Amino acid sequence: MKKVISIVLIVMTLVGLMIPVFAGAEGNTMYVNCENGKSLNVRRAPNGKVMYRVVCGSALEVDPVVPCPKGWAFVRVPGHTSGGYVMTKFLFTQEPGKYEITERKATFTKVSPFRAAARHLAELGTELTALRETPNTSAKTIRQLAEGDLLKVVARGINWSRVVDLSTGRTGYVTNLCVSKL
Fold first, then answer.
1. Beta strand pairing status for 91-92 and 160-165?
2. Is the pLDDT of residue 65 over 70?
3. What is the value of pTM for the model shown?
4. DSSP 3-state assignment of 37?
5. How far apart are CA 77 and CA 92, in angstroms?
6. pLDDT score, position 130
7. pLDDT at position 9, please?
8. What is the rounded distance in angstroms from the CA atom of residue 139 to the CA atom of residue 70?
9. What is the mean pLDDT of residues 117-126?
10. Distance (Å, rounded) from C-alpha 113 to C-alpha 124?
11. Which site in 33, 127, 173, 182 is 20 to 30 Å from 112, CA atoms measured?
12. What gap in Å lies between CA 181 and CA 143, rounded to an integer?
């Protein structure tokens, strides 16, 4: 009888110790937010062949049990039978709002640099214009530009200009609507 009780206690102890392991194996829900606003490649292996793509804003489960090289995660995507590897820089814990990028940095055309002034748009209800790190209205702001701040435009895109802020020397992006050629 003592042997049976001992075995039962050992089994119960082991099961109790395994509960946190199984709970942690569920993964973490993360959300896709790509710089280009389109989709995230899910690959067979890190830097491997693309199996399918997941659109921006999609929820997926990160599997913490599968070992991955730095910068990569193994994920399971609802609606797909097989999981795959994605770059972690495109995964966020909070669901992104409407993706607001208007163009890729690669689409910019270099221009002969010219001087311009920042201007504000009255319809936006602000007297400041943001100089941003990337051509995206939700990108990090480098500095708020006041009406008339001097800029040097070095490249133009469809909706954004790459500029140098002449007061700080910092390079960033300003929407074309807020750049006035001098």
1. unpaired
2. yes
3. 0.46
4. coil
5. 15
6. 87
7. 57
8. 25
9. 68
10. 28
11. 127
12. 20
Residues 6+ apart with CB under 8 A from 39: 32, 53, 54, 55, 56
The one-letter amino acid at 29 = T
SS (H, E, C) 107-127: HCEEEEEEEEEECCCHHHCCC
DSSP-derived 3-state class of residue 75: strand
**How far is Cα 151 from Cα 116, in angstroms, rounded to an integer?**
5
Query: What domains can be seen in the chain, in order of their start residue?
Result: 28-99 (2.30.30.40), 105-181 (2.30.30.40)
Return the residue matching tokens 């099961």.
Answer: 15
Query: In terms of DSSP H, where are the helices of the chain?
Result: 2-24
Beta-bridge partners for 101: 136
Q: Extract the tokens encoding 52.
A: 């399918």
Question: What does the block give as tokens for 56?
Answer: 């921006």
Q: How many CA atoms lie within 13 A of 11 on its CB side?
A: 6
Task: For residues 100 and 35, give the distance between their C-alpha atoms in angstroms, rounded to a whole number.
Answer: 10
Local structure of 64: helix, strand or coil: coil
Euclidean distance between the first and the last CA atom of the chain, given in angstroms as a whole number: 95
